[in-house]
Amino acid sequence: MIELKNINYTYGGGTTQQIHALKDVSLQIPDGQFIGLIGHTGSGKSTLIQHLNGLVKATSGDILYNGQSIYAEGFSMKGLRSKVGLVFQYPEHQLFETDVFTDVCFGPKNLGLDAEEIRARAREALDLVGLDESYDKVSPFELSGGQKRRVAIAGVLAMKPDVLILDEPTAGLDPKGRDEILDQVAKLHRERGITVVLVSHSMEDVAKYVDRIIVMNHGQVAFDGVPKEVFRHYQELETMGLAAPQVTYIVQALRAKGFPIGEDITTVEEAKAAILQVVGGKR
Amino acid sequence: MIRDITIGQYYPADSLLHRLDPRVKLLGTLVFIVSLFIADSWLGYVLAAAFLALMIRLSNVPLKFMLRGLKAVMILLLISVGFNIFLTDGEHVLLEFWIIKITWEGVKQALFMGTRLIFLIMGSSLMTLTTTPNQLTDGLETGLGFLKKIHVPIHEIAMMMSIALRFIPILIEETDKIMKAQMARGADFETGGLIQKAKALVPILVPLFISSFRRATDLAMAMEARCYNGGDRTKMKPLKYETRDYITYVVFAIYLALMILVGRL
Amino acid sequence: MGIIKASKLIYEYIKRDEEGNPEGVNRAVDQVDIDIQPGQFVAILGHNGSGKSTLAKHMNALLLPTEGTIWVGDKDTSLEDNLWDVRRTAGMVFQNPDNQIIGTVVEEDVGFGPENLAVPTQEIWKRVDRSLEAVGMTAYRYHSPNKLSGGQKQRVAIAGIMAMKPRCIVLDEPTAMLDPNGRKEVIRTVRELNRAEGITVILITHYMEEVIEADRVYVMDGGRVVMEGTPKEVFARTEELKGYRLDVPQVTELAWELKKAGLPLTDGILTIDDFVDEILAIHQKSGK
Question: What is the pTM of this model?
Answer without folding.
Answer: 0.86
